[in-house]
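# step 3/5: fold
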Amino acid sequence: MLSKNSQTTLNVLGHKYHIMRYACLPVLIFSIVIVFTGVQPSFAISGVIYGQYSCQRIGGAWNTSDANTCIVTSMVVFRGETVIVLPGITLVNDGTITNGGVLFNSGGDIYNKGDITNAGIISNNGKTFDNYGTISNGGTIFNSVPFLNGGTIFNSGTFSNDGNITQNHTGVIINNQAGTITSISNGTISNLGTISNHGIISNHAKLISDGFILNAADIYNWGMIQNSFNFTNAGAITNSGVIANNRSGVMTNHNVIYNSATISNLGSISNPGTIVMCRGTILGNQVVGNSPYVSC
């Protein structure tokens, strides 16, 4: 005999998933039923990771001694499929994850020590996402929670951040020519490693760097960029917010900076390139090299 114990509703990118747990009496056995409204995705490898059975269905190994951890060495999410990581679950990638569908972290933890290739959607709305391997993104990544990068991220798609991305000393983000990285609203990127930009970085929030920033393409700033180490521009920076070059900061401009707001220089700015001022200001230490000029 089955009796319904609880029901949880998840909203994943417009699809509603009603997750119901049933108890089988007299022996307590839990199973999961998924009912949804909208267009039905296909779950070739299960759908929701909620425990040992669902982990094993996707080819994972369940580690009960380590906080409900599902370890995968090879996982493929095809187009039209969705994999959801529930609260209390840790998904560990020790090998490869290839995603052409949707990988949705809904309150859980994702720990990557291998390679993740994304041509679909990765939505990180969980507890944490730690990357110590390689992520190659040609699709879309949404982040709204803590994201730690100690590995390498190659972005040729769209990476939108409304959470906190922390990059440690070993972390590298390479934004390729087709890539766009956007920090919105409450998004913060804290960099102790290296950010190399060959595409577009659009900052509406905070980019705080105590590491290396190498720009060879376009950076648009409406928020705050703080540099406390090394910032080299060989592309174009359009500033409509605040750029703060702190006391330990070294900025070198080899190409062009368009400034219509505020640049605060307590460190060193070397300008063999061009700085164009349009109703903008530069405060603090004098720029070394070519003088900024006014043009609107």
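# step 4/5: annotate
Residues 46-294 form one domain.
# step 5/5: archive (pending)
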